[in-house]
UniProtKB/TrEMBL annotation:
Protein name (Swiss-Prot/TrEMBL): Metal-binding protein
Lineage of producing organism: Bacteria, Bacillati, Actinomycetota, Actinomycetes, Pseudonocardiales
Domain of life (superkingdom): Bacteria
């Protein structure tokens, strides 16, 4: 925490038309009052890791939240959910995965002890009794996405020799490897076998 805080520039006013912005004025800064909020917010920029797993632009984030007025600000709790798409990190098949994250964030009132003793990157602020949920939700959702998504927990991946999915290969599939030191003898044996077959069974010495 900061002991001596320098004056900070006033945050930009939040636009009520922005679906990420929540108006808390009806809570009236009376500790104990609460308000339920459900919203479906369009995703304008894909979230996640491209070519691995993302919540695509054009999809939606579903918010189911409770806003509660407390002494130091407004406590936001609930869930955010969405559908992510990507590719299995083992077999590369396309996958679709439901993602749901729990949210708990305090937004501090201007002039509160919390606002005076913390930096904004530690605890976000209310601006004109409004909350901007976007940074909080985006960070939580991105962190919840798997770094190595799987189509199934027991996915065996691909055969490193032929690149075919192990699940599609017959039992006992394998690729025989010959020690390079014996490769010349194998070639010679194959050539001699081929010559004998070409001569036919009726050839006489």
């Amino acid at each position: 925490m900061s002991e001596n805080k320098s004056p900070q520039a006033r945050p930009a006013q939040l636009d009520d038309r922005n679906p990420w912005v929540l108006d808390t004025r009806e809570l009236g800064r009376h500790a104990g009052l609460s308000k339920a909020v459900q919203r479906s917010i369009p995703v304008e920029t894909a979230l996640g890791v491209p070519d691995v797993i993302t919540i695509d632009a054009g999809s939606s984030l579903e918010l189911d939240l409770m806003l509660e007025s407390v002494v130091e600000g407004v406590l936001v709790s609930g869930t955010a959910s969405a559908v992510a798409t990507g590719h299995c990190s083992r077999c590369l098949d396309p996958i679709t995965e439901d993602v749901e994250v729990d949210l708990t964030e305090l937004f501090a009132y201007p002039g509160s002890a919390t606002e005076e003793t913390t930096d904004e990157d530690e605890i976000p602020r209310l601006v004109d009794d409004r909350i901007d949920l976007e940074p909080t939700v985006r960070d939580a959702v991105v962190l919840a996405l798997p770094l190595a998504p799987l189509c199934t927990e027991d996915c065996q991946g691909l055969c490193i020799e032929c690149g075919v999915k192990w699940a599609d290969l017959p039992p006992g599939h394998g690729h025989e490897k010959i020690d390079p030191r014996w490769a010349a003898l194998v070639d010679r044996f194959d050539n001699e076998t081929g010559d004998d077959q070409a001569d036919g069974p009726g050839k006489q010495a």
